[in-house]
Amino acid sequence: MPLASNLTLPCGLTAPNRIAKAAMTEGLAEVVDGTAGVAGERIARCYRTWAEGGAGLLITGNIMVDRRYRERPANVVVDGPQDVRQRAGLERFSDAAKAGGGLAIAQISHAGRQSPKSIAPEPVGPSAVRVKLPGGLFATPRALDDGEILDVIDRFATTASELCRAGFDGVQVHSAHGYLLSEFLNPRVNRRDDRWGGSLENRARLLIETVRAVRDAIGPDKALSIKLNSSDFQKGGFSFEDCQQVVGLLHGEGVDLLEISGGNYEQPRMMGMDGLEPVFDEGVRASTRAREAYFMAYAEKILETARMPIMVTGGFRTRAAMDEALDTGVAMIGMARPLCADPDAPRRLLAGEIEALPAREASLRLGPGWLGPQSPIDTIKAANGFGAMAFYYRNILRLGDGEATKPRMNLFAALVKHQLQETKDAKRFV
Fold this sequence. Notes:
By secondary structure, the protein is of the alpha/beta class. It has 14 helices and 16 strands.
């Protein structure tokens, strides 16, 4: 299947090619008339640049359904009916994301226990299980009660409706990477004994009920995507066998595109890193490394039974690997980090100007030896991972400010600047 071929989703919308700009957190929201989390010119400018880069589908980063539990301070928030100015900002955002002729889907999310302490002194989750990371960034969550869980479902539906009303072609329900819906799926985190916990069917109830509510809210002609972990890669956590069963539960629920990913903050496999080196389950280690894409081996298994189009994100760097994935039945190729440094990469791939994206990960490290990503000191190992993330965060901010991206940065300086920016935003975006 050619990378340049179009894709018509079950809802009837058509993407002009098979490259998707996958979701990445942006941190580009603004404060307007005292209201935080508003989409303004910075995020529109960033997405206009990405849209003009040629991707057939653009998926936004986390748009939060509840401002109390954001993934980071400067997330866009749509947690209720929007006033005239807020909706105008969202309309400019959606128009910018479609400026290149592709589809634009808004990712909707609730951070759950992965909402930082600077935002949520008492985050929420399925159970009172804290994120185990050094630095004390996350507080111990409070378990949601039944009524609050139902409110979460309503919030996803309301947010979806508002975003589609503002011009987005659909929404992606974020049920991966350890955010709230993903937490409910994970038995390490979900220790409930009511209808929302215990068996996989109960743990998946929040996701399924949310998907149904969102589909009802946006109608049949808008795209409904789900982002789902192939695995949490934690002993006793959400497994690949669980994933396969959840895919079965999603059949018949009007899903137009299922994106396969993996990991969470404690096991950041969605970044393809343990420190900075690619890591995989033993059963797929060799084949996945050979193919670049972190989750391709899992996707192939899911394709055997899935009744909806499948998108795979993570690790794609060569045209050959993308073509191979499409030939196996994958519908869309997700690209994320490469577009932070080279937003024009999709157009250049489609035009045959390049056959591979530059691999920058090898140079993204604080230092050699014990200062590198394989350091025996956990704090240094974590700093390398966060420093690499800061490289991409800083480049996204540059796109929002209309500046050229930087292919190289001092990671320590980038990390410090990122942390200072997050601290500043936490005070502004109250």
